[in-house]
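Below is a filled-in request sheet from our internal design queue. Each sheet records the structural input a requester submitted and the sequence that came back. We keep these sheets so that new team members can see what a complete request looks like end to end.

REQUESTER: design group, bay 2
PRIORITY: normal
MODE: inverse folding
CHAIN LENGTH: 440
BACKBONE (tokenized):
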């Protein structure tokens, strides 16, 4: 059988169950589709993909192509909408089967359904490659996924904790030949912008595996992770594995197995557990998104808890531009725009500011993160924003951070604010008035 493998968020050869299934074919066409809609403004005034993630993604694709060429394959990069591109390739190359990884997100689900509708005689299969567990190996049915992370974690940790290791798939060392190499239109893809600030991330499977090894076995930074994970701007303070996990250059199961191996060879402590704990948070939001579907993107969230919000254009613009009244928030937002990355602590601080001080719809903040973050992940991003806004998985309601206290605790000397120029020369206040003194 001739198979088309649609690479999405699984840009790797290690631990890739979907690619393993696709390799059991007579002929294999490997495809990645760059969607022009990613680069156009959406309903919340933001693009789906900004320059930082696009640069990282392109680096990842080039690494993947080199890996495939070493196995006698190549990567066909198409520029267009998947609903059109995939069926056209299927018809052109007499493809009998289409395989991809299972993805959370309603747009992704809609694309897959549209492709299946256009290809009624083609076998269309999905495999779980983004998660630690398959749906069948979860310690509960998906419909019974707990409403809170704590309940989920307890159920998982009661189960056999070697399960994630058992699910790991070997690294592929051979692939069937391609049914010809179609001309691609990658030249239509947007140009790659040069970074304005030194970037600490290089896309691709090899770079992701190297970072994992560096953080654990070279620097042993995992030993003190519990103490450093809240630092605002220290590269070794956290694992920074999220960009590679987000586009699938690195497998979550590979990370889990590496943590277990480190604990058996070196030390097992609260810090090593905490990295696993955060993998579980990622896992929870993955299944949370699969369970709740479109509710993940609604203003009132999964909990359908109404929030009184309005849209103040000047407040949102000031938040994005780092020109609010809050220097710590400004510094983090400046860092985000310049590098495509901010720490987990910074994300909570700026999100709390948007939801509470600026009284804006949380979805605008989630959309800006989607455009800017090099490690954007639909499930984690929207799940975390709902959590902070009090309309998602947090049983305690909205999280409101005291911005002055956060600055004293995490930037006591003001070094982070100075480095990222958090003292705006023209801060924008909460209220503006027009000529008649009516609030705008």
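RETURNED SEQUENCE:
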């Amino acid at each position: 059988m001739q198979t088309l493998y649609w690479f999405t968020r699984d840009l790797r050869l290690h631990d890739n169950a979907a690619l393993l299934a696709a390799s059991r074919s007579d002929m294999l066409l490997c495809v990645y589709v760059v969607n022009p809609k990613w680069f156009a403004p959406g309903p919340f005034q933001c693009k789906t993909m900004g320059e930082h993630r696009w640069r990282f993604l392109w680096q990842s694709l080039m690494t993947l192509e080199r890996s495939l060429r070493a196995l006698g394959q190549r990567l066909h990069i198409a520029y267009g909408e998947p609903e059109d591109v995939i069926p056209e390739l299927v018809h052109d190359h007499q493809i009998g089967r289409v395989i991809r990884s299972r993805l959370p997100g309603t747009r992704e689900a809609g694309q897959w359904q549209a492709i299946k509708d256009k290809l009624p005689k083609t076998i269309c299969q999905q495999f779980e490659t983004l998660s630690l567990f398959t749906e069948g190996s979860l310690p509960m049915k998906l419909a019974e996924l707990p409403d809170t992370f704590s309940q989920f974690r307890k159920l998982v940790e009661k189960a056999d904790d070697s399960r994630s290791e058992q699910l790991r798939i070997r690294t592929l060392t051979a692939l069937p030949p391609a049914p010809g190499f179609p001309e691609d239109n990658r030249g239509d893809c947007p140009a790659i912008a040069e970074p304005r600030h030194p970037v600490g991330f290089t896309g691709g499977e090899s770079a992701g595996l190297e970072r994992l090894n560096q953080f654990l076995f070279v620097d042993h930074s995992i030993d003190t992770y519990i103490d450093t994970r809240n630092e605002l701007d220290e590269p070794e303070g956290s694992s920074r594995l999220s960009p590679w996990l987000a586009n699938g250059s690195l497998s979550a199961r590979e990370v889990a197995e590496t943590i277990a191996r480190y604990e058996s060879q070196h030390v097992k402590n609260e810090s090593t557990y905490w990295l696993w704990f955060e993998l579980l948070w990622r896992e929870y939001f993955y299944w949370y998104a699969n369970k709740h579907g479109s509710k993940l993107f609604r203003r009132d969230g999964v909990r359908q808890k109404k929030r009184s919000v309005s849209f103040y254009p000047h407040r949102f613009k000031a938040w994005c531009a780092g020109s609010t009244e809050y220097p710590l928030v400004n510094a983090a937002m400046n860092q985000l725009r310049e590098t495509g990355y901010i720490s987990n602590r910074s994300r909570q601080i700026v999100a709390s500011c948007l939801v509470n001080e600026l009284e804006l719809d949380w979805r605008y903040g989630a959309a800006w993160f989607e455009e800017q973050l090099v490690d954007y992940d639909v499930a984690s991003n929207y799940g975390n924003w709902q959590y902070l806004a009090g309309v998602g998985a947090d049983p305690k309601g909205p999280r409101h951070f005291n911005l002055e206290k956060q600055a004293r605790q995490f930037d006591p000397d003001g070094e982070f604010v100075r480095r990222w120029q958090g003292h705006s020369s023209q801060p924008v206040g909460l209220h503006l008035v027009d000529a008649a003194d009516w609030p705008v």
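SHEET NOTES:
- The mean pLDDT is 92.
- The radius of gyration is 22 Å.
FILED BY: M.R.
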